[in-house]
Design goal:
Blueprint (H helix, E strand, L loop, with lengths): L13 E4 L21 E5 L3 H4 L5 H20 L4 E4 L10 H12 L3 E5 L4 H13 L3 E5 L8 H8 L7 H12 L42 H13 L16 H14 L1 H4 L19 H5 L5 H13 L5 H25 L18 H4 L5 H13 L4 H15 L3 H11 L5 H12 L16 H7 L20 H12 L1 H5 L5 H6 L5 H16 L12
The site of flavin-adenine dinucleotide has 27 residues, from helix 10, helix 12, helix 15 and helix 17.
């Protein structure tokens, strides 16, 4: 097959580039679209699935949503030059495909909305420059703040902190404010009420998120991905993600009605074989631009005003979407491209193999990685305090950690994944995103989940065969970085606790940590005698 649909009558005025994470029919790039003189360009290219070893669910979600967008645009009478993955002549790269389209269609100008990935922007700019065609980049109105506003906010500040940016956006957009213009309920932040665990009984009374069984278009994509990327990680059997704006809206309504009321309370809690709990699973729909974050924030506030959800839940959720989401985007574009190279703690270990197959004895890692490969999803605390924490304590090179996170999650787009991974979870940016490393022993996981009760390792032990590797590696991490961390006020207590260890304790921990590393990142399995 060759690229389907011919262009409008020549000469072509605008070729409007729509990337896989720009599936918003109201995007700025489509402003003033004239069907008689303009055309849309979309391309499925192998490079986007191979530059990191992208999981099957991630690739499938992007392609399925792109094809639905293409069909919706064609139904509006618009010309879409759509290059499918298996089309004859597909060069396999965005730059190559754009160059080919320019040569064939000879547009006067290329128009796009701001990209979500620095590498992709470079490739498109290079193709445009090579063909001597102007590339006009328009502001991404999907976000509630612009990159210029974030730059202005950052200017002159010694340190950036989410809280200040979040408050500024709440005020600017009039969200969760009382009659005096202050924060609803008197506080800006109800985080302290949002750290519940499920105790011994486990989660009860929650229901699974609404599922979206694949239609014919999506089924075709699933078969294509299965065939083309057979060796890639992940599984497509459970694929049920929203792939259109209508489905994304139904997913939002379902979350607000059934899970938002307890989102805050159990935001940080984990339980085995319970991937969704009270989370929204809306990140992918928002990141592909199927869902407008304004609708998410507005409906959440309305649910609170109508008395359907407590303030702590509404505020906690709005802080994620209006606060963190806009904040990490600002950080990404402020510090790229050097942010991708950051390695403040000089971490050099390879990423353990079990991150790619889930074959590991630790119950918490096995659960988080297993569901990640099965569903393309893990919630924030699983990413931050299980897989992320383990890589941090082990000392894995941040670039490898970043490539894993970018590859395996359906919601992974670099502007949001990179600061979360390199900054928040690996502290590789030296404190731009987080004021201190998120370092903890296995006891944190014990408190927030039932994993330790189902695991042979003991989170209270740092040495010995049954010592929890999180705990061993935590102390080893503090020892390895004692000098650097001692200068951080917020780490003072943790570093002081090192003083309780005798030289013999220190040596035993170092030896056990070395054993864990040399066994591929996790202790060798206990021998079972038959
Ligand atoms: P919920 O728990 O329901 O949260 C609601 C929404 O808030 C999310 O959908 C998301 O849009 C937003 N949000 C919450 N936390 C963050 C955050 N820290 N940064 C930005 N937005 C946030 N999020 C992504 O969207 N894509 C990624 O590739 C990604 N990679 C991550 C990597 C690491 C190491 C960590 C620690 C976090 C990462 N996050 C990422 C943030 C967060 O974990 C996910 O947004 C969330 O788990 C998605 O599930 P959910 O939609 O059910 O979110």
């Amino acid at each position: 097959m060759t690229p389907s649909a011919s262009a409008p009558r020549t000469p072509l005025r605008h070729l409007v580039l729509v990337l896989g994470d720009q599936l918003d029919p109201t995007a700025a790039a489509l402003d003033g679209f004239d069907p008689t003189r303009d055309a849309i360009w979309m391309a499925e290219v192998a490079e986007e699935s191979t530059h990191v070893w992208s999981s099957k669910p991630r690739t499938a979600l992007f392609l399925a949503a792109m094809r639905h967008f293409r069909d919706a645009q064609r139904a509006l009478g618009r010309t879409v030059r759509y290059v499918a993955l298996d089309d004859t002549g597909n060069t396999g790269t965005l730059g190559g495909e754009l160059a080919r389209a320019i040569a064939e269609l000879r547009p006067e100008r290329l128009v796009m909305t701001e990209a979500g990935d620095w590498r992709v922007l470079q490739a498109l700019e290079a193709a445009a420059e090579g063909a001597r065609v102007t590339l006009e980049v328009r502001t991404d109105r999907h976000f509630l703040s612009t990159l210029d506003e974030f730059r202005a906010h950052a200017k002159g500040r010694k340190q950036l902190r989410l809280e200040y940016w979040y408050r500024e956006l709440r005020r600017r957009h009039g969200i969760l404010l009382d009659a005096t213009g202050g924060p609803e309920g008197g506080e800006w932040n109800y985080d302290a009420e949002n750290r519940g665990s499920f105790g011994k009984e486990g989660p009860r009374g929650h229901r699974a998120p609404v599922a979206f069984p694949p239609d014919a278009v999506t089924r075709e994509v699933l078969a294509l991905v299965e065939a083309r990327f057979a060796g890639h990680p992940g599984d497509l059997a459970a694929f049920d993600w929203p792939v259109t704006p209508d489905e994304a809206r139904r997913a939002l309504d379902d979350f607000i009605a059934h899970r938002l009321p307890r989102f805050g309370e159990f935001q940080d809690a984990m339980w085995h074989d319970e991937p969704w709990l009270y989370h929204s699973r809306l990140a992918a729909a928002m990141n592909l631009k199927l869902l407008d974050p304004r609708d998410v924030v507005r409906e959440t506030e309305r649910a609170y005003r109508d008395g359907r959800v407590p303030l702590a839940a509404a505020e906690g959720f709005i802080r994620q979407v209006l606060g963190w989401r806009e904040y990490v985007r600002g950080i990404y574009w402020l510090y790229m491209p050097r942010y991708a190279q950051a390695n403040a703690l000089g971490a050099r270990e390879p990423l353990p193999r079990f991150y790619w197959d889930g074959d590991v004895e630790l119950a918490c890692l096995r659960d988080a990685i297993g569901q990640t490969l099965r569903l393309g999803y893990a919630h924030h605390i699983q990413r931050l305090m299980v897989t992320g924490l383990y890589a941090l304590l082990l000392g894995v090179e941040p670039r490898q950690v970043h490539e894993w996170y970018l590859a395996v999650y359906v919601d992974a787009v670099e502007w949001v994944e990179l600061p979360n991974t390199v900054g928040m979870s690996q502290y590789a940016d030296g404190g731009i995103m987080a004021s201190k490393p998120y370092a903890a022993t296995g006891k944190y996981i014990q408190r927030m989940s039932d994993h330790c009760a189902r695991c042979r390792f003991d989170p209270s032990k740092s040495t010995g065969d049954d010592a929890c590797p999180f705990t061993t590696l935590y102390w080893d991490f503090l020892m390895r970085h004692e000098e650097t961390l001692a200068g951080n006020q917020r780490m003072a207590l943790q570093v002081r606790n090192l003083g309780r260890l005798s030289p013999a304790d220190r040596a035993a921990i170092t030896a056990r940590a070395a054993e864990v590393r040399s066994a591929g990142g996790a202790p060798p399995r206990a021998l079972t005698l038959l």
